[in-house]
Amino acid sequence: MNKVDLWKKAVSLRKQLGDDATSPIDIFTLAYSIDRLSIVYYPMGERLSGICVKDERSNVIAINSSMTLGRQRFSMAHELYHLFYDEDQLTAICAKKIGAGSDKENEADQFASYFLMPPDALSDMIKQIKKVPSDKLSIKHIVRIEQYFQTSRQAVLYRLVGEDELTLQEAESMRENVILSAVNLGYDDTLYKPTSVEKQYGTYGYYIQQVKKVMERGLISSGKYEELLLSAYRSDLVYGDEAGGGEVLD
Ligand SMILES: [Zn+2]
Asked: From CA 66, how far away is CA 45, in angstroms rounded?
């Protein structure tokens, strides 16, 4: 695996999508703006994290929404690697365990790690945390890093072991009691939990734009329009406040 190349790709894609090279990233909003990409959230059970399907006309990324928010963010970054840089496969079906699959899967994991936690930003943060370079990172620091970059515990440990900041043994001791370790330090637990059940099903991005477009051009009936949105788990666009243009003043 060529880590420098993956680092360069991660920085290049951040810039291509309009972000800078180092800040924490709102990866879902970023993904919704990608041309001809539909995003589907669906609870896929225990084993899969996500799927990327590429086609000449449009692309789909599906995210396992029953995993924690931090992990879903990592999955999205992993699938972006398949979408933009994986020239071998038109369909990638990706397992849950980080850094344990084929070469291509490992590359996508390393890319995802760099995309969410840019090396420059991470090393600056570690320098700031450690008073002297020989200091060891503790659980308090791990929580601070994962909260800052909004990444799952497993993803942070995988990265810090890879960077020789933690030994495998040290990382192992930090894999458990994840929520407890964060809430006891005063953090919110949203990052460590799955999305609420009503938000585990949904389609965003290109698909929604296309359904709107064919409706506006009079190419489909309003019944068909509603059917297409309902089959994409977007009853909110048919029956909800959004359907009537309702807005809360903010
Ligand atoms: Zn993959």
From this structure: 7
50 phi, psi to nearest 5 deg: -175, 170
H or E element at residue 12: helix 3-16
> From the CA of 60, how far away is ligand 1's center (Å)?
13
Q: How far is the CA of 44 from the centre of ligand 1 (A)?
A: 15
- Give 162 Cα–ligand 1 centroid separation in angstroms: 19
User: What domains does the chain contain, in order, with CATH numbers?
Assistant: 3-115 (1.10.10), 120-187 (no CATH), 202-244 (no CATH)
User: What is the reported pTM?
Assistant: 0.93
d(CA 244, CA 105): 43
Residue 1 has pLDDT above 90, yes or no: no
Ligand 1 (ion): residues with CB under 5 Å are: 92, 94, 105, 108
> What is the Å distance from ligand 1's center to 146 Cα?
22
The answer to whether the beta carbons of residues 6 and 107 sit under 8 Å apart is yes
55, 117, 67: which is closest to 94 by C-alpha? 67
pLDDT in tens, 224-243: 999 999 999 999 999 886 66
- Burial class from Cβ neighbours inside 10 Å (0-12, 13-18, 19+) for residue 24 reads middle
The pLDDT tens digits of the residues spanning 160-196 come to: 999 999 999 999 999 999 999 999 999 999 999 998 9
Q: How far apart are CA 220 and CA 227, in angstroms?
A: 11
> d(Cα 133, Cα 158) in Å, to the nearest integer?
20
